[in-house]
Amino acid sequence: MKFNWGHGIILGLLAFMTFIIVLVSKMIGAKVDLVSPDYYEKGIAYQEQIDNDKLSNSDVFVLKQIGTDLLLQPKDTLNVLVKKPVQLDFFRPSDKDLDFSLQATLDSFGKLQLSQNQLTKGLWRIKVSWMENGKTFFTEKDLVWQ
Fold first, then answer.
1. Are 16 and 56 within one domain?
2. In what side-by-side order are the strands of the sheet with 69-74?
3. Of 65, 73, 75, 142, which has the maximum CB count within 10 A?
4. How many CA atoms lie within 13 A of 45 on its CB side?
5. Structural domain containing residue 100
6. Pseudo-torsion of CA 75, 76, 81, 87, nearest 10°?
7. What angle do CA 60, 63, 64 make, to 5 degrees?
8. From first to last of its 146 residues, what are the pLDDT tens digits of the chain?
9. How far does the chain reach from its first CA to its final CA, in angstroms?
10. Are residues 13 and 75 in the same domain?
11. For 12, left (φ over 0), alpha (ψ -120 to 50), or beta?
């Protein structure tokens, strides 16, 4: 039997259909993590968070890795946040099982040093929120933990 253009078309169609079937089966089996279980409800309230971020200067805090410790320090060391609790939400975009939250207070020098053995290497999004004069302030920083 001689190979002609009709055979080529059929082989091309079969290859394309095989590709589509493999692609669809891989997409169906893919793990899809939402940021949180109530993702859509939080999305509705996100405008309030955007407004809180506009109220605060996004460069209020400096986040640094010092060895195995995480240093959170206000840029203005005379900041009034020294005696107020700060909410820290650690968000790992690649794995929601690593997310955690904690609440802490800055020391008398205006610094917060956390020993974080929980942080694995990679990108972390750290959300910092605090209350001041009855208003909620919010800022978000990205940190690549090494």
1. no
2. 61-66, 69-74, 112-115
3. 73
4. 4
5. 39-145
6. -10
7. 150
8. 788 999 999 999 999 999 999 999 999 988 776 666 776 777 777 776 666 655 555 566 777 777 777 777 776 644 555 567 888 888 888 877 888 888 888 776 667 777 667 778 888 888 888 777 777 777 788 888 87
9. 62
10. no
11. alpha
Strands (E) across 68-134 are located at: 69-74, 85-91, 100-105, 112-115, 122-132
The pTM assigned to this predicted structure is 0.60
What number of CA atoms fall less than 13 Å from residue 140's CA on the CB side? Answer: 10
What is the DSSP annotation of 79-93?
A: -GGGGSEEEEEEE-T
Do 123 and 141 belong together in one domain? Answer: yes
Distance between CA atoms of residues 128 and 78, nearest Å: 18
One domain for residues 79 and 15: no
Distances from the Cα of 145 to the Cα of 69, 110, 114, angstroms: 10, 22, 13
Distance CA 125, CA 7 (A): 54
Q: Which two tokens stand for residue 81?
A: 């946040």
Same domain, 83 and 20: no
